[in-house]
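task queued by scheduler; priority normal; single chain, no ligands, no partner chains; default sampling; output format set to structure tokens
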Amino acid sequence: MIPFFRKTRKKLADDNKPMKYMRYAVGEILLVVIGILIALQINTWNEQRKNKSKIISLFKEVQIDLLKDISNIEHAISTYKIKDSLVYLVLNDKLTVEDYKKSKARVELFQLIAYYVDFQFHTNGYENLKLNVNNIPLAHKLVFDTLTVFYEQTRRTLEDANIRIGNAVFENIKYLSNNKEWFSSNYGSWESNDTVIEYFMHDPFYKNRVKEFRILINDIYKKYKIDAITIYEQLGVITKSNKPLSNQLKIYIVDPESLKPYIGVYKQKDSTQEVLIKINDKGFFYFNEKYNLVHEGNDKFGFEDAYNRSLRFQRADKGELIGLNIDYYDKKTEYIKID
């Protein structure tokens, strides 16, 4: 293309002999400038393409880290769900000697306050991304800001909670080690030791420790998992590498469309107060506050922000919806459908 411009420029210059050399010189300079500008633009495009490719690779690395963390948090949530149900039994004196001797959950019973799930977060992808923050395209800045909140706030909150739980567990083990002679005996013999079972069933200070453990197990685990899944899927749109999550890991947030079969007004049973639950095409409303629900089974849902609170709809023999129950810690509240 440049030879073409040169021929054209030379012809134009030849038509006016006095201006020939001046036109030729100016044209030559312009051609050089244009060539430099084109080269710079091509170089810029190449650099942008390389930066974009690098950022995409780092986003993929973050996705891999998130998958590992989601799996770890799922294990923690499952473990603490079991513990929470056992806590309810302990605090409400619903366990018998036989439960400790023969129950399939006897290991969990003996380890109720002496075991927790410790985990390490995977942050290499995010840390590498921070080192390249100036190269992140403007279109992806919002996703990076979301990642920053997730790793700098949500993760650190969960880490702090995990440390508190770990410290409580170590204190419990230390107490048993210093005060109970039977603690050093073979663990498998505990189920046949009446003194051990007596301690776990009736010691009031043990129940205090159980209550403390329940308080420490807060709902940040579920929030972390939901946020991690949401970000993972957002990154998938960018990276085109959105490996589907397994049913075991994925939390299914209930949308208003899915709530249509349950639309109605529910009144608290045997209550003198007007305590109502409303479900409409905009969502689930409890005490006039909107809550996001999570699928947990047939007619059963959890609350997005509380894994120790669950909701189950009740049906008549013919399948007609007649009410719902809300379980929260050791309290069950019944509601009947009135509209």
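post-processing summary
- The domain at 256-337 is CATH 2.40.128.50 (Lipocalin).
- The chain is about 55% helix and 15% strand.
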